[in-house]
Structure formats: C-alpha cells, structure tokens
Amino acid sequence: MQANELKENGYQEFLAPAKLNLFLHVINKRLDGYHNIQTVFQLIDLYDNLFIKTNESGLIRRTSHHANIQESDDLTIKAAHLLKPFANKQSGADIFIKKTIPMGGGLGGGSSDAATALIALNALWDCQLTQQELQELALKLGADVPFFIFGQNAWAEGIGEKLTPFQTKPQDYLVIAPRETVSTREVFESLELTKDRIPLKIAGFSNELDPKNLVNDLEKGVLKEFKGIALVFDWLNQFSHAKMTGSGSCFFISLSSVDEGKKIAEKRPEHTLGFVVKGLNNHPHFNLMLGTE
Ligand SMILES: C[C@](O)(CO)[C@H](O)COP(=O)(O)OP(=O)(O)OC[C@H]1O[C@@H](n2ccc(N)nc2=O)[C@H](O)[C@@H]1O
Ligand SMILES: Nc1ncnc2c1ncn2[C@@H]1O[C@H](COP(=O)(O)OP(=O)(O)OP(=O)(O)O)[C@@H](O)[C@H]1O
C-alpha cells in the first residue's frame, strides 16, 4: 500500500531515522556477554516510515509483509507488546512498516523502528510513560534502542544506553551499503580483546572529532572476515577516510558538498546502495516524546 492509501485508511505516519556511529571503541567484555563501548551516535535523515492505526480490538498486528522478518520477531511488534501493559486492555494497533534503511547495516534501522513505535504508541494509547521510563523499556529490545528514544546526538557508554547529549557539527555524509550484511552478535563474538581499552573522557573530546583520529574497533574484524565488504570499503576509502558504522556492514565518509556525494554515489560498485544524507540535531518526533507536540 502507498502512503496516501494508508492515510486514507486512517493510518498516521511516523518517521524512524537511522544513525551513524562517528567512532566506536570497545572497552571490555562484561560478564553478561555484552561489551562496554564508547561511541558518538549521530542521527541522519535516512528514514523508515511507520504507519500506525489504533483500534479497540486489543490486538497488535503488522499489516506490511517482510520476507526476512517474521511478524513475531519484528522489533516494532515486540515494542508494541512491551508497551501494551501500560495501555487500556482494549488498545490495539495495526502497524505498516515501509523499510528504507538497509537491514543489518549498522544503521540501527530495526532499533529505530522499535523506538518510534514506543514513542508513537505511548502518545496514541495515552500510556503517559516518561522519556526515562521509555528508555528503560527500550533497553529490553536492544542496546541501540534507548538512544532513539533519547532523541539527540549522544555520547554513549555502557552497552550504549548511558547517554549524554553531544553536539556534533552540521555535516553531510555519503553512506554506502554493501549487499552482504553482518550479524552484530557474530562481530562482537569474533573480537579478540587482549586487554581493556582506556576509556576516553567526554570533556575535550569534541576537538578530536576529526575522521582521521576516529576508529571503529569492530571494523578491522569485519574487513578481515568479509572480503566482499572489504572491497567496498577500499573503494569508498579512496575518496576520503571511510568508516564503518556500528557492527557494519555500511560505511560512510564526510562530504564537503551534497553534489560531491552524488557524484561519488553514481560511481559506486555494483550491488551496493548509496545514500547522501544530512546529520540531524534531533529525532523528528522529539517533541511528541516530550509530550509537547
Ligand atoms: C554496535 C552497535 O550498533 C553500536 O551502535 C550497537 O551496540 C548494537 O546494538 P543492537 O543492534 O541494538 O544490539 P543488540 O540487539 O542489543 O545485541 C546484539 C548482540 O550484539 C552483542 N553486543 C551488542 C551491543 C554491545 N554493546 N555489546 C555486545 O556484545 C551481543 O552479543 C548481543 O547479543
Ligand atoms: N523492523 C525491523 N527492521 C529491521 N530489522 C529488524 C526489524 N525487526 C527485527 N529485525 C532484526 O534485527 C536485525 C538487525 O536489524 P538492524 O537493521 O537494526 O541492524 P543494524 O542495522 O545492524 O543496526 P545496529 O546498529 O542496531 O546493529 C535484522 O537483521 C533483523 O533480523
């Protein structure tokens, strides 16, 4: 179904933005198997679209079809079920997801879909959870989800859930998505950590936000393991310092202009996707989440 058709049928549209990790340091491995990290999350204007229509049936249904994600595994649907106990018993919703953000790309698409579902349904079902309460609920869905509820570019620690607002400079990026994707869990599992990394301090860090000084500790392992992905990295890296986002497999470079990005994207390797994007300051539904929209 097209957006206008969905709206004619009573659906409301919400946006789920992607993110980049401007750098990512893995500090150490925790006893629960997760890793403590330090990262800067940057929201970008690449979106999935969520269409939501509430009803009084008490049922939560996904009305879009996605061949590679079962409805019950969909983080968006899981988010709705997680919020349901805070709503009236008869509160239900039909959710149609239009995916644009490549899956398994390190762009946080699934996490952002889930966060947008929480933000939207908290308002539509009148659950009245605070931002802090939503962030706590979000963490049950994945390490990246609380950030999208936080809704501002952030310095993140812990497993990614300890968030401090972090001002980034206005910047356009070119994001390239290889055809091959990688599993976040497998990338973390194959990390060979010999000793703890010394944590950085947020104070004074912004001066170091030069792509040349920034690394993603997960990048080396992915490039070593996946030759096809490494070829895409090498291609992008000839134009500027290419960097992987999250656990991959997408890479990005900073641009000096949108035109430059478009020209490079036109030459991209076969079977890859290219997106010229802008950094955002805030989540598009930041005000809705704060209850002021
Ligand atoms: C790498 C990042 O994309 C950086 O933004 C995120 O930390 C990943 O977040 P996510 O996709 O929401 O990850 P989750 O779904 O919570 O975790 C998937 C798997 O990745 C590993 N994982 C994830 C995050 C983290 N800080 N340490 C980990 O070791 C765990 O094995 C976990 O089982
Ligand atoms: N609505 C959804 N959209 C995308 N993926 C989903 C969704 N629901 C569940 N998933 C599952 O989550 C996995 C990871 O999705 P996602 O796109 O968030 O990962 P990612 O881009 O690597 O981001 P991250 O930076 O969080 O690791 C997918 O491979 C898919 O199996």
Write the layout of secondary structure elements.
Blueprint: H1 3-8, E1 12-29, E2 35-55, E3 60-62, H2 75-83, E4 92-98, H3 109-124, H4 131-139, H5 145-150, E5 154-157, E6 162-165, E7 172-177, H6 184-189, H7 219-225, H8 227-237, E8 243-244, E9 251-255, H9 258-266, E10 273-278, H10 286-289
Parallel strand pairs: 3-4
Antiparallel strand pairs: 1-2, 2-4, 2-5, 5-6, 7-9, 7-10, 8-9
Helix pairs in contact: 2-3, 7-8
The protein binds 4-diphosphocytidyl-2-C-methyl-D-erythritol (CDM) and adenosine-5'-triphosphate.
The site of 4-diphosphocytidyl-2-C-methyl-D-erythritol (CDM) has 19 residues, from strand 1, strand 2 and helix 6.
Primary descriptors:
alpha+beta, kinase, 4-(cytidine 5'-diphospho)-2-C-methyl-D-erythritol kinase activity, 4-stranded antiparallel sheet, 4-diphosphocytidyl-2-C-methyl-D-erythritol kinase, binds 4-diphosphocytidyl-2-C-methyl-D-erythritol, binds adenosine-5'-triphosphate, Ribosomal Protein S5, domain 2, 293 residues, 10 helices, transferase, isoprene biosynthesis, 6-stranded mixed sheet
Descriptive overview:
The chain is an alpha+beta fold and 293 residues long. The chain has one domain (1-293): Ribosomal Protein S5, domain 2, CATH 3.30.230. 28% of the residues lie in helices and 26% in strands. The chain has 10 helices and 10 strands. It has helices spanning 3-8, 75-83, 109-124, 131-139, 145-150, 184-189, 219-225, 227-237, 258-266, 286-289, and strands at 12-29, 35-55, 60-62, 92-98, 154-157, 162-165, 172-177, 243-244, 251-255, 273-278. Strands 1, 2, 3, 4, 5 and 6 form a 6-stranded mixed sheet that branches. A 4-stranded antiparallel sheet has the order 8-9-7-10, covered by helices on one side. A hairpin with a 5-residue loop joins strand 1 and strand 2. The model has no long low-confidence stretch (mean pLDDT 95). Bound molecules: 4-diphosphocytidyl-2-C-methyl-D-erythritol and adenosine-5'-triphosphate. Adenosine-5'-triphosphate binds at residues 69, 73-76, 97, 103-111, 113, 144, 184, 246-247.
